[in-house]
Amino acid sequence: HFKYLSKSFEEAKDRGYITFNPIKNWKPDKHTTPLQQSLTSVELKEVLSESKWQQDFLMNGFEEFSLGYRLLDIMLLLFVSCKRRGEILNLKIEEINFKAHYAYYKETKNSSKGMTYVIEKAFWLTPEMGKLLKRVIGDRTAGYVFPSPIWLKRCKNPDEKFNGEYLSELFKSITCEKVPTKKIKLNNLRHTATDIMEKAGLSDDEIDACLGHINVKTALPSYQNRSADAIARRLSKRTRKGIEVLCIAVREFF
Prior knowledge:
Elements: H1 2-14, H2 41-48, E1 57-60, E2 63-66, H3 71-81, H4 85-89, E3 96-97, E4 102-110, E5 116-124, H5 127-137, H6 164-178, H7 189-199, H8 204-211, H9 216-219, H10 228-249
Antiparallel strand pairs: 1-2, 3-4, 4-5
Helix pairs in contact: 3-5, 8-10
């Protein structure tokens, strides 16, 4: 990013927009990325056992509004799928195929050069995950898997999806209480999942497939002209082994 910014200033200088490159002699500060902490299996179960996760409503002042699902349902799907908060909260019913055991969706990303590109993503659905999703979705046929009542809609978030910030703050407060010796945030669940998969004997490739994403256009060229269903089946199967291990780790909470 530093080199890209410097080149941008050089181009602006060449075109006469500025007289000199203001960062030409700058040196980026040394930065050491802190080691990420994770929860042990025992600590994870202690956190998920907190009664607040059983809550199936949210408060709007003194009014209680039903969600139609438990907060624990979001946490379980988030953990076993190894996805980020936004991916699960943005997941729609239309993107789930119970018969073929997968959830398939697309994400639009922005590159450092200002270009946008689409990433195809999918993850495997175990029987436990399928039952959870069917219970959450009920008779609904479209919309977000985890919607939020319209009365709680935020002005900056016109969509009726669950408030991710609330989920993160709740997780942080519970982990601070249950595991005061560690600084754990919601995104540390992915590190916890990694540790569990490593201890289960999964290879680096199997773990990466579960944690990351596959760009079909580059990684699976033979599939780029295939149907969405073919892509989803191929991608989800790569995550199956890791997700099955994680489901076993928290099976008692389903």
